[in-house]
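Worked example 2:
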Amino acid sequence: MGKEQFDLVIKNTQLVNVYTGEIINSVIGILKGYIAYVGFKDEELDAKEYIDAKGKYAVPGLIDAHMHIESTMATPSAFAEGVLPHGTTTIVADPHEIANVFGAEGVEMMLDASEELPLKVYMMIPSTVPSFEGMETSGASICAEDIKRLIDHERVLGLGEVMDFWGVVNQDEKITKIIDEVKNRDGIIEGHTPIFKGKELQAFIAAGVDSDHTIMDREKIKEKLRSGMCVQIQGRFITTDLMDYINTLDNFSNVLLVTDDVTADRLSKTGHLDGLIRKAISCGLDPVKAVTATTINAARRMRLYNLGGIGPGRIADILILDSLEKFEIDTVITDGKITVKNNELLVKIKKSQFPQNAYNSVKMNELVEKDFEIKTKADKGNANVNAIVVNEEGSYTVKETCDVKINEGILDISSEDLYYMAVFERHGVKGTRNIGLIKGIGDFKGAIATTYAHDCHNLVVIGKDRSDMTIAANKLISIGGGMCAVLNGEILSEVELPIGGILSNKNINEISAELNSLVNTIKELGIKHKEPIMILTILALAVSPEIKVTDLGIVDVLNKKIIDLINYEEEKTDE
């Protein structure tokens, strides 16, 4: 009403109005962290501070409705420093990575570590820890009692992605109790269903799980939207065909763009949600729709009704853009204060703290070369094996059977296009271990090891030379977790992840530099993949189709069972 002076006024701006889809010349008045007035004409407002936008665009702060902070391998404070310059002002994080190490306590660690940040951090309670019950060993589990323990936290919005989709439709007792507990508290329930359609999809939704962010194409999205689902599109599924389809929708309020998993090196190269917006626009999505899908649509999905738009009564999270089509950010305003200008962070962020028990989580003795041998029933001849074939583009893997020579009771892959993939339970729970064989990753020399391995984050070691594999594994055991590459007995590159074996204490730029060095080393060693870090960390994910390797065996994801590495009924021995 003009009875009190505004703290900040943005004038001469082209407002991207996500309520109507218009772009309107506007003036915006901000008081006490909130938008108090939006005028749709030139007018003078009394303020303590002014921003003359000079015709630049004003859009709401970006909201990532489905993501995992741990994917950057950064703490919440370091993550905030990294994403605020990219215009992300609110996130809804599913901390299921750290929950697989520490359970409900891990969620509480992340909630505590994300207090008092200029980035708004909301969280979902991980629903499926471990991701596939009976197919892998995590450091802890989440049950209905844990939901009761966490659900009342003011920044907890509901249940994170339900990955046990077969458990849902088959009414598995554990996941059903978890879902019912959240439904009874009127919480939001997020989904993960890469293969369901028809009756299975309908049953999944009927159980209360009404979103998905996994494999997306035109037909999958069409079926899910028609069934009332919210579809959350990751960057790898943004295509010209899909964006053309979204442009045709009269109502696209259930369409969101989300990051899901972004490593620190990719964040530094292509950005965060801003990078998805640029990609979507380049693939033909209307720019206003791209903004809407990352602001008001996300806010309404997550019931954050005071966010997502530029209108009176909303929290003043605003971006000023030099270009809408290129999504070039000039200024970031959070809670009515300028926090970023010309890509420079103007506020000091308190460093996240973790308790002492978050460290030293790799509970294993040193390994020896014999730990990487695959023994057979026969002393010689050939064994028919189930190998995991990797493609160079994504995470989808398939099974292929092939014959491998047996040498003194041990599989000999020295002359084959095959590599060992060893998975060791490293949380001190069971001490289980398993070795599979993978192919299709290139002419790879040396060894790579990681304790960051979705979702159970066991120790994964890949290579052909068992000596190098042993050195790589023991390095990570000695430093409490991380990633490293080894060739001819020499450690070429490493990333230390001492917090739970999955997070670094360093800032986002330092983590990015270490990951870039590791990626370059991996490529020099011969691994061929569009995203080498992603594929290395996802080959032990028991819910990722079609076939993966865990500490308990080779998982046939589609048929929900563990299969043998060696098909003994087809094993051939010399007469």
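The first strand starts at residue 6 and ends at 17. The chain is about 25% helix and 30% strand.
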